């Protein structure tokens, strides 16, 4: 090492010691949410990483043999269920916390003994290649997962770089060690899911290939390069295709040591001899572009075989992101819940480009990102609410990249639409609204994006005027979505109206008064679905009449998607005051909120909704799903704001924990966790697109938020405890404030916010 | 026009008049070979063009409902049968003259009246979208095809640039004009052929998309851009998929005016209003890379809508290629047969790259050709015999590009093999041998390639040493392919031995004495499958014994592929003299040849071979298939060379014509036609890889061959007629020659060759 390098070395060592003495990863438990319906995965990934290398505890098919939907499908959105005792292998792509699913690509399973390529039944031990495991032999931490595969006495360890999964399998001594690569396995598997798969054995320790599926992502391509640390002694595959045609490949013994394997459904295997405790390592790189791209990613990100080094570097990457909010809490459990929520908030959106910036676009052409890092997995109906607002505080640069990814999606879209749910170079059209505009408006309002405003406005306006999109043509003509033309019409009308308000905000910043007035006018459309005579938002028909059949409690078929008129009907975040006035005023509204939280909902009202589960329900309030996430904060707009404080605290304490069942519903790509982070810090973005946050009840002792502008936003609480959930006083930079809002500027300016807490409400504190 | 431009203009006009006064395209009849088993297509294409836009007269499925092979499949290798009266549409990719098939991509059909997306049955008029047609309303010429679609009174015209098909449809007046784009249609269609198809409606007159198939090419991607000359008024599609899963696309009315259409099997349509005789034109560009590539090809090659201009330019491209051999013949029929053969010899291999040089490689990655034009469709077991030798005379630069394409194929091959049958970024493994080495050796011998010799040798040697390839491992170990391990073992042994001789020739030129001796030794392996006791090449078993069951006349299951011991057993082109000596000497060999031509083969011996048809048989000689193409020339190696002259003339006169049934078997990607061109000119490359041509019986009056070195090789005949088929004297550059061979240098030096003909043989002329 020369002198200059040594100086640099000292500088970075010093910097590193100075900047990061705390290990926040110790408070992350990736298993949180893996029991019941959290739909999180426990495996290894980097923050926002393209690879999510995680165990599958069961392999489901979506449709049973008689053609019926298999209700177990839903349980395995992320591939892993804590109550299971079986591991089928480790695959490389997973969604975190979604309520519909896909992926589970490239399942790798190490086995020993007589080769068995059939996965077998989870309920029947040794019925296939799967293995029993127990949680006592399982470790999950940020960027690292390990488990003992009991059936084979193989210790499996996983870590990852951004684009490369790194496996390490310690085998027993055997002449029959196998590594299975199952290309049939898929999450949300159905008969026609795989459209094509392809493996090339490049040499005795490197294979490449791709898998193409037709699932939630209609046409998904994932390319890979898989490098073994040791040459395999032989290999082969089994093809499960039904096609009568195999061309002249029939002249080969394709199934044994033939270096091209292809078909719709194939399982490959690679054989080894191992000595006792010999570790076989695998580097498994992904690309959306090509096998060439996957190899480039592999060689660039992971040119060595040092597993511990990657494990530590990935842990360090996580620590860097987690350290952006340094909280102190009363209990360890709270701290673990907090940092696990932080962890869950950074599992998606994921980067979606190769190290050279190339990525597959929505038009299926290969693009190169210019001035941004392309991302995918935008579950926007969920994440616009709190996750992207959170990013505007702790990840503004990355959020700006995400916005640019959305604009690229728009440019590549044949509909000229921003993403609804951006999914591996596909639009999967899940849920309602066009909430990318909210993400853009929020970033515009908070000055965290440098995109051209006119371009952003044009993209937003294009998106909001596609007549064949989900009732939007009717909405534009009639001012509401008619239920007889497009179901979930009230949800759509409310979400569109809010989205239009967002577009108006962008227009205002762009000084486009025409667009501003057009979309501001459209933002009032919520008025058109409010039935004054019954006091509920209600589905209206194309002829202007209210639909006769209507049950404001039923969450199915009543004009709302995954919600009912009682809760989803309160969705006017941009004009809460006007909505409250329209609904009879503050006191009556308070009473309605009380009723929501205290009237138990009957099973018959939720039985048709996979996404509404008992765990996440308080009365009629459904925390386990998104449309009500702002509801606890609505008391702030009434004469009883302290009820926000108690309800928020109740939800924080009862709906989250540091245990495997610590999520009361799908984490929804981080939205549930983002709600928790905001709410424990004491404020929440009720209306993304505005700079205001509504104050709730902080449940931390203190927090320091590191901002990208170099400043720190400090939150302190005085006298806070599980009993002292009410606000008695709030000081911002030493001055008492009387409203229950703070502004984004307060954060960005590096203010100090002190919450003084007590066991009883201070009823003078109002909005 | 300014003065300089005007001067250029005059210059080019003069040049054009000077260089090309003759129109050779008038002698081309693309319908030759469309009746019975020629398997040629009559549609529009440029020389070696990537688009072959041609009508389909029936849509076949490969397997009937009970799972059996549909024997009609074979008839439709090129999509068109002259005896049919129905047209189903015009698709953009076709193979010319093959005996197995694929392609037929992007079938376009114009219709009127009530929309019908079902193709219907050919036998039932008006049972689907197909139309009746008659040959009196049909025109086919080089680069142009037109037909009246009787059912709709639509005049269809087709032409093409290298990468763009150009359609022109003259409609009647109607409010119900449709253009159907059928993505279900495929040549050699089976249930699982389409793996995925995708259409994007970019705007009201442009669509893009792709089709991915699993056929003879295992994983073929073809991307397209389709531009209409007039906006469609509406559009839609029908999806025929059986998949239970459609994600959230179900929220759309996907079938009507929804600009993304995707699935395994879809048919799309585009609606128009037309006035009487209104012409709707379509530009349809292909790419192996992406829709972006297809659009680039479209905009680069065809930026205008002038149909006549393209038709004329394409005709001119053909004329330029056809003019490379300027023949005079006794009859117009002969001239038409000759130029049609010339035409057929340039329908493949085809260029396979976008205008920017990008192409899909065998590894499925996107490559850019560097210093060559990438080609595909190498049907090498057929074309190494005479087609590539022909190219070495009239297309040496392009042949060099083809060799470089083969080397790129090798580099991209996981097997590190040169192509066996290169097929749209796939290896389809059809037939036996590794004849790319012959093409390279022939070009090396004739100095028409500038590839690095060591690199070419390495690629050839790699190809010849892949142990799992088609019995090659056994061949390397035992010196022959054992029939009990790999069928068609004698054919394989003979072809490998010849191929090895070719590699030895490359090695010799590369001064690699080790490789030379290795492969020269291997080239003697034909000795190992000759059974002296019965006087035939015969299948041998792995234990060294001859197979007991053996019938030297049967073309099925007797160690030969598409041939029998009588004819295929004479395949030792590199050591004909030694073979003849081994088989008992010249006189006995002559008698065997006589027997071949005079003993009628019984049906039972050929019934299992689709590729051997009665039309192409003389006694036991099968001209309609390749393995015997050198046989008529083998008399030259005996004491009765004049029998070569009469037999060649007999074959030229009886096995070819200028009529629709003018080919006696599959044209085999141009090999049959190349045989005709050589044989009518009076010589034939019996042993590609050597510079010698064996002289037969010229049937032209004269020929001038334009060489790329600027010289002209002139052939004249004196006293030649259908009766005067025997050579009495040969003069090369004014000097009599007594051998029946000429050398490639004689051609390249621009010699004059005069054949003096008579009605009786001159028995003094011998080899």
Describe the structure.
- The structure is a homodimer of 767-residue chains.
- By secondary structure, chain A is α+β, with helices and mostly antiparallel strands.
- The first copy, chain A, folds into 2 domains: 26-312, Beta-galactosidase, Chain A, domain 5; 323-758, GH92 mannosidase domain (GH92 mannosidase fold), CATH 3.30.2080.
- In chain A, 25% of the residues lie in helices and 22% in strands.
- The first copy, chain A, is built from 17 helices and 36 strands.
- In chain A, a hairpin with a 5-residue loop joins strand 20 (358-360) and strand 21.
- Chain A is globular.
- The N and C termini of chain A lie far apart (62 Å).
- In chain A, 61% of the residues are buried.
- The mean pLDDT of chain A is 95.
- At the A-B interface, strand 11 and strand 12 of A face strand 11 and strand 12 of B.
CATH architecture of the largest domain in chain A: 2-Layer Sandwich
Instruction: Give the strand order, joined by hyphens, for the main sheet of chain A.
Output: 6-7-8-9-17-13-12-11-15
Oligomeric state of this protein: homodimer
* Biggest chain contact: A-B, 54 and 54 residues
| Average pLDDT number of chain A | 95
- Rg measurement of chain A, Å: 26 Å
Overall CATH class of the largest domain in chain A? Alpha Beta
The class by helix and strand makeup of chain A works out as alpha+beta
For this structure, what is the CATH homologous superfamily of the largest domain in chain A? GH92 mannosidase domain
- How many domains of chain A? The number is 2
């Amino acid at each position: 090492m020369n002198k200059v390098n040594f100086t640099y070395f000292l500088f970075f060592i010093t910097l590193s010691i100075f900047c990061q003495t705390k290990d926040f990863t110790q408070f992350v438990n990736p298993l949180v949410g893996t029991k019941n319906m959290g739909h999180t995965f426990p495996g290894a990934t980097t923050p926002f990483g393209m690879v999510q290398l995680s165990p599958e505890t069961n392999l489901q098919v979506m449709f049973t043999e008689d053609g019926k939907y298999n209700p177990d499908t839903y349980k395995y959105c992320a591939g892993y269920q804590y109550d299971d005792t079986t591991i089928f292998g480790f695959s490389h792509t997973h969604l975190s916390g979604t309520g519909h699913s896909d992926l589970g690509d490239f399942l790798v399973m190490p086995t020993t003994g007589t080769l068995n390529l059939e996965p077998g039944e989870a309920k029947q031990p040794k019925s296939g290649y799967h293995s029993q495991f127990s949680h006592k032999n399982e470790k999950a931490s940020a960027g690292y997962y390990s488990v003992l595969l009991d059936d084979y006495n193989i210790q499996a360890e996983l870590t990852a770089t951004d684009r490369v999964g790194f496996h390490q399998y310690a085998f027993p001594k055997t002449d029959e060690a196998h590594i299975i690569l199952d290309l049939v396995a898929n999450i949300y598997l159905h008969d026609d899911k795989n459209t094509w798969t392809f493996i090339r054995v490049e040499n005795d320790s490197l294979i490449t290939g791709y898998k193409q599926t037709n699932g939630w992502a209609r046409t998904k391509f994932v390319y890979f390069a898989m490098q073994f640390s040791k040459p395999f002694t032989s290999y082969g595959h089994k093809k499960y295709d039904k096609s009568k045609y195999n061309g002249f490949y029939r002249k080969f013994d394709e199934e044994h040591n033939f270096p091209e394997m292809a078909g719709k459904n194939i399982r490959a295997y690679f054989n080894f001899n191992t000595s006792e405790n010999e570790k076989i390592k695998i580097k498994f790189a992904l690309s959306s572009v090509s096998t060439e791209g996957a190899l480039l990613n592999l060689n660039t990100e992971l040119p060595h075989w040092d597993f511990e080094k990657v494990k530590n570097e990935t842990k360090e990457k996580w620590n860097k992101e987690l350290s952006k909010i340094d909280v102190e809490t009363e209990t360890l459990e709270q701290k673990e819940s907090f940092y696990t929520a932080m962890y869950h908030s950074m599992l998606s959106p994921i980067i979606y480009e190769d190290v050279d910036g190339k990525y597959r676009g929505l038009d299926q052409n290969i693009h190169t990102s210019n001035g941004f890092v392309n991302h995918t997995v935008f579950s926007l109906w969920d994440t616009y609410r709190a996750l992207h607002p959170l990013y505007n505080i702790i990840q503004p640069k990355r959020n700006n990249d995400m916005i640019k990814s959305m604009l690229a999606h728009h440019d590549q879209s044949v509909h000229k639409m921003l993403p609804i749910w951006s999914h591996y170079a596909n639009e999967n059209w899940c849920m309602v609204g066009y909430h990318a505009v909210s993400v853009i408006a929020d970033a515009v309002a908070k000055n965290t994006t440098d995109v051209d405003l006119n371009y952003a406005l044009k993209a937003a306006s294009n998106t909001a005027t596609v007549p064949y999109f989900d009732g939007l043509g009717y909405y534009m003509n009639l001012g509401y979505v008619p239920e007889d033309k497009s179901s979930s019409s009230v949800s759509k009308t409310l979400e569109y109206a809010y989205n239009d308000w967002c577009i108006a905000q962008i227009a205002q910043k762009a000084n486009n008064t025409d667009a501003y007035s057009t979309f501001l006018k459209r933002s009032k459309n919520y008025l058109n679905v409010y039935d004054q005579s019954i006091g509920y938002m209600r589905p209206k028909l194309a002829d202007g009449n209210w639909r006769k059949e209507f049950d404001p409690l039923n969450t199915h078929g009543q004009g709302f998607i995954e919600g009912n008129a009682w809760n989803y009907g309160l969705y006017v975040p941009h004009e809460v005051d006007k909505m409250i006035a329209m609904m009879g005023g503050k006191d009556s509204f308070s009473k309605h909120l009380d009723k929501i939280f205290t009237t138990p909902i009957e099973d018959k009202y939720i039985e048709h909704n996979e996404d509404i589960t008992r765990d996440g329900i308080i009365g009629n309030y459904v925390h386990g799903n998104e449309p009500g996430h702002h509801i606890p904060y609505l008391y702030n707009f009434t004469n009883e704001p302290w009820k926000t404080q108690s309800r928020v605290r109740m939800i924080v304490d009862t709906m989250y924990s540091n245990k495997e069942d610590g999520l009361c519903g799908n984490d929804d790509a981080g939205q549930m966790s983002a709600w928790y982070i905001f709410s424990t810090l004491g404020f929440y973005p009720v209306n993304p697109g505005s700079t205001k946050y509504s104050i709730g009840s902080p449940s931390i002792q203190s927090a320091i938020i590191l901002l990208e502008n170099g400043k720190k936003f400090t939150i302190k609480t005085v006298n806070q405890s599980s009993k002292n959930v009410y606000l008695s006083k709030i000081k911002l930079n030493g001055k008492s404030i009387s409203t229950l809002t703070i502004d984004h500027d307060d954060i960005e300016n590096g203010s100090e916010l002190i919450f003084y807490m007590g066991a009883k409400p201070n009823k003078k504190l109002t909005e």
